[in-house]
Amino acid sequence: MSAPRSRTRSSRSTAPKVGFVSLGCPKALVDSERILTQLRAEGYETVSSYEAADVVIVNTCGFIDSAVEESLDAIGEAMAENGKVIVTGCMGTGPKSQLVREKFPNLLSISGPQDFASVMQAVHAAVPPAHDPFFDLLPPQGIKLTPRHYAYIKIAEGCNHRCSFCIIPSMRGRLRSRPIDEVLTEAEKLAKAGVKELLVIAQDTSAYGADLKYAPRHWRNRAYATRLLDLCEGLGELGVWVRLHYVYPYPHVDHILPLMAAGKVLPYLDVPFQHAAPSVLKAMRRPAAAEDTLKRLETWRRICPELTVRSSFIVGFPGETEADFAFLLDWLKAARLDRVGCFQYSPVAGAAANALPGAVPDEVKQERYARLMAVQARISQDKLREKIGRTIEVLVDGPGEEGVVVGRSWADAPEIDGKVYLSSERPLRAGQIVKAEVLEASAHDLHAQVLDG
User: Fold this and answer.
1) For a FRET experiment, which of 35, 106, 362, 404 has its CA 20 to 30 Å from that of 175?
2) CA 153 to CA 247: how far, in whole Å?
3) Which SS3 state, helix, strand or coil, does residue 362 take?
4) Which residues contact 386 (CB under 8 A, 6 or more apart)?
C-alpha cells in the first residue's frame, strides 16, 4: 500500500488514520491528490500500513484487463488486511462496478472518478473527522504524490471522442474543461511552492475549452479566453517548465509552437497517434484520422526545430493486415519520432472494438511489437547521438543506482521517457536545473557532464 510520508507528532495519536492506494494514470493520480488534500484539511492522517489504518481508500484503474486485475488484487488485499475499504475511480462506474460489488459485497462504498463527495461521505461514516487546526497546516498547493519539483495539473475531465478501443467516456463522461483562472491560480501556487515542472494533462488536452463559451476571464489583470493557446500563454509566464501531454494533431495546435520556439513552453508534444494506416485509424474511430500527420509534423518542426515528439501505438488491432503494419513502419521511419511506446492490442470490456472481425493472433502481435520497437530503437539512438557535444538543460531528479545522479532534459517526461545520467564535480539536489555537455548516447538515455557556473 502506498501513502504519502507525513511528519509525526505525539498529538496525532488521536487523529483518524486512512490508508491510501493509488493506481492508474496521471489523471487518476491527480484525483488521488485531491482526495488526500481534503483528508488532510479535515484532520485525517495518512498511514502506510493496513494495520494502522482505520479505513482504506483504493483509487482504481480499469482501462485494460491488466489494470482491472491489478485493481481487483489491490481491493482484495485491502479487504483481507483491513476489512474497511472504500473503492473509487474507474472501477467504480459502469459494468466494472458490478464486477467489484459481486466480488466484494462488504465494501463500505464504491464510486466513480471525480466523485470526491461520495468518497468523503464514506470516510466520515467509517471514522468521523477530528480536525485540529494546530497540527500540520495544509500546504497551499495541496497534497502531491509526485516528487516536490514536478507536478501534474489536470485541465479537463472526460472526453468527447468515441474511439472503438476505449471506454474512457463511459467512465469519465464528456469533456468538462476547468476555467482558465482556476487552472492558472493552481499553477501559480505550485510554482511558488517550488515546483519546477508542470505536466499538463487531460484526456484530450488540445480540446481544452471547446465546451466553454468564449468569455474573457481575468488573471493578473489580463483578459484570457478559455482555450489552449491562452492557457499556454498564461502558464508560460510562471518561469517553470511546462510540458504538454495527450495533444491530438489538430491544426490549431500549430499556434502553440511559437510559444515553444520562444521558450515559454517546453518544445515537447505527447501526441497519441496510435497508428498510421488509414483503414486501421478508421476502425479505431480516431479523431484527426484524416489529417496528414507527416505534413503536420513537418509544419511543427519548421516552426520549432528543437521540438521533441513522443507517441504511442497499438499493434495487432482487429483487422490490421501485414500491409497495414508495413504502412505503419514506413510512416514511423518517415516521421522519425523522438520517443515511442507500443502496446499489443488487448480487448477492453465494453469497447466497441470487441465486435470487429479479423482478430490478430497473439504471436503475430508479439512479432509486430518487436519489429516496431526495433525500428524505433534505431531512430531514437540516431537522434540521441546527434546531441553528443551539445549543451543541454537538465532538471535533476535525484540519485539513481550506485549513487549516479539522474535527471531529465526538455525531451524527457518523467517515468515514460529516457534519462540523463550526470557526472558532476559539485553536489546536485533534486529540483535543480543545470547545464550539461552530452558525452554519450544509448538507444534511450544520455550521459552528460555538468558544466561549471
Assistant:
1) 35
2) 14
3) helix
4) none
pLDDT tens profile 130-163: 654 433 444 555 666 778 899 999 999 888 888 8
Q: With DSSP H G I counted as helix, E B as strand and the rest as coil, what are the percentages for the chain, rounded to 5?
A: 35, 20, 40
The answer to whether 90 is annotated as binding is yes
Domain that holds residue 106: 17-133
Query: Is 242 exposed, middle or buried (CB count within 10 Å of its CB: 0-12, 13-18, 19+)?
Result: buried
Q: What is the pLDDT of residues 4-63, one digit of tens each?
A: 333 333 334 578 999 999 998 888 888 888 899 888 878 888 998 899 999 999 999 887
- Do 211 and 174 lie in a common domain? yes
Interval 244-281: pLDDT, tens:
999 998 888 999 999 999 999 999 999 999 999 999 99
Do 321 and 405 fall into the same domain? no
Give yes or no for a contact between 156 and 176, defined as CB atoms under 8 angstroms apart. yes
Query: Is the domain of 238 the same as that of 215?
Result: yes
> Is 232 marked within a binding site?
no
CB neighbour list of residue 381: distance below 8 Å, 6 or more residues apart? 441, 442, 443
* 243 in the same domain as 231: yes
What DSSP string describes 180-196? HHHHHHHHHHHHHTT--
Instruction: Give the length of the chain.
Output: 453
Q: What cell numbers appear for 88 in the block?
A: 473509487
Is 159 labeled as ligand-binding? yes
Q: What angle do CA 306, 312, 318 make, to 5 degrees?
A: 150
Chain-centroid distance of CA 378 in Å reads: 26
Average pLDDT on 211-222 reads: 55
